[in-house]
Amino acid sequence: xxxxxxxxxxxxxxxxxxxxxxxxxxxxxxxxxxxxxxxxxxxxxxxxxxxxxxxxxxxxxxxxxxxxxxxxxxxxxxxxxxxxxxxxxxxxxxxxxxxxxxxxxxxxxxxxxxxxxxxxxxxxxxxxxxxxxxxxxxxxxxxxxx
Length: 146
Description:
The protein is an alpha+beta fold. The chain has one domain: Aminopeptidase (3-Layer(aba) Sandwich). It contains three helices and eight strands, in the order E-H-E-E-E-H-E-H-E-E-E. It has a four-stranded antiparallel sheet with strand order 1-2-3-4, sandwiched between helices. Strands 5, 6, 7 and 8 form a four-stranded antiparallel sheet that branches. The two termini are 28 Å apart.
């Protein structure tokens, strides 16, 4: 696995296309969730990509404090269906947490997690901080890693 971190303006057209393609494959097609993915946060984010055999198989969007929450945030967490059960998702999140700390200092990280992934994020140290809410028709919860 080759891990790459880039700001939006440093992404190549091919990298940006791969990110959009993977996010659409999972969030739109697999989860049947038609929503506006382009939310004007990508331009201010760091994009953390996991490449295997020249294919993007894991991705997160790392947001600075003040963009989505007061704390830095990890979002658009996605692994390719073809790469699941490989441990890439856990590695992706651990690396993303370490990268957030490197970029913004060691401070709490807040996420808006899909409810069905609560135990996965809890296994990484995140704790639920609020009630269940609907986002684009999918149950979510806010979680924080202190």
